[in-house]
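Consortium newsletter contribution from the modelling node. Members have asked for a concrete example of what our holo predictions look like. Here is one, prepared for the guanosine-5'-diphosphate complex that several groups have been discussing at recent meetings.
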Amino acid sequence: MLIITIVVVALALATLATTAFVVASRRRSAVRSLPGSARQTRPAPAARTSPPEKVAPPARAAPVEDQDRAGEAPGASDVAPTELSDTAEPAAPEVAEPAAPEVAEPAAPAEAVAPAEEEKPARFKDRMVRARTLLGGYLSAVRQKGRIDESTWEELEEALILADVGVLATAKLIDGLRIRVKSKEITDPASLISALRADLVELLSGDRVLKISDEGTTVWLFVGVNGVGKTTTIGKVGLRETSNGHRVVMAAGDTFRAAAADQLETWAQRAGATVIRGNEGGDPGAVVFDAVQHAAAKACDLVLADTAGRLHTKTNLMEELKKVRRVAERPPGVVTETLLVIDATTGQNGLTQARQFAGAVGVTGVVLTKLDGTAKGGIVVAIAEELGIPIKLVGLGEGVADLVEFNPEEFVDALLSES
Ligand SMILES: Nc1nc2c(ncn2[C@@H]2O[C@H](COP(=O)(O)OP(=O)(O)O)[C@@H](O)[C@H]2O)c(=O)[nH]1
Ligand SMILES: [Mg+2]
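And here is the predicted structure:
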């Protein structure tokens, strides 16, 4: 009897232990598969990271290849918009290296080689290599989203600031688009991108004609800081204008170094133009005055006046340029254009220069050089928006055919290119 009782009690205990074990293990597996478990619901970063991949350093080194890699890089979304705006300026150093295949080809020293007729005019999309690959990822991400929400605006803002459009112009563009989305005029990402494109084209559609005076001798003054491409631009414009039937005199108003006048002479020979030069360190105003007198005496109708981006003396550059302008205006001289030459690779610095020169000498148009290769391009928008100065000519390379009339549609297409 005792034995039977012991066996029954032992069996009961064993059953209890088994039941407890099964219940406990079921609970554990239930917790693991709960939908709200913290680790599993943290969003996979893929969706949000795809556009900033464009910002990651490799994008600069190998832009074309990167198009295909968009969407891979987790963690790139950590880059905040404010940080991006700060990086807009110092982009120059790393920019020097991305010798993309398209850019390599125009780098030949045009001065000594091929005549103008043999060179095909440069195309924006082919040359704006960096700008072209900068915004593509952002725009594709905005488009693929399927709807417009707060992150859409963040992407667009980030993209425009990154492309050098500048904080003010970006805010203005975004605000305008937001109003139209609110009023349901724009309802989907594709229309939003089209509207941005149209706004940019309109903003950049200034008067691009370089004016010739009917009375007197036309003078086009070229101003800008050192190294931006003034002398090269005068050479290219001179060649273009002599081909258009004008009789051109070039004034070597950069008397800071003799080499500047020599450089101008090389271009003048090519263009069939005359150069008037003074002594090194001489008065730039006197050189321009002589050039106008010479043009009038020889029945030439156009004077292209080079100026210095720095001076020998402590005289303020802006004061000196005002003086040059006054002298150039003496009859028969008529200054119809004061063209500010800006190097597109200097980013927001270009905007600062534009403000200073515009305030001092009344700039009528901008020539934006070096838009090929490493420039981000958006500075064009910043200048047009903030100063209302039209971009008249653009340098897309060093070759003689690489100075072209600014074309807003082609430019915006290249800037907003998604391929
Ligand atoms: N890549 C590129 N280089 C340019 C362009 N325009 C000018 N340059 C180069 O910029 C350098 C400085 O030009 P220069 O005319 O001497 O500048 P300046 O000091 O303003 O007269 C030269 O090596 C030019 O060949 C352009 O549109 N693209
Ligand atoms: Mg020069």
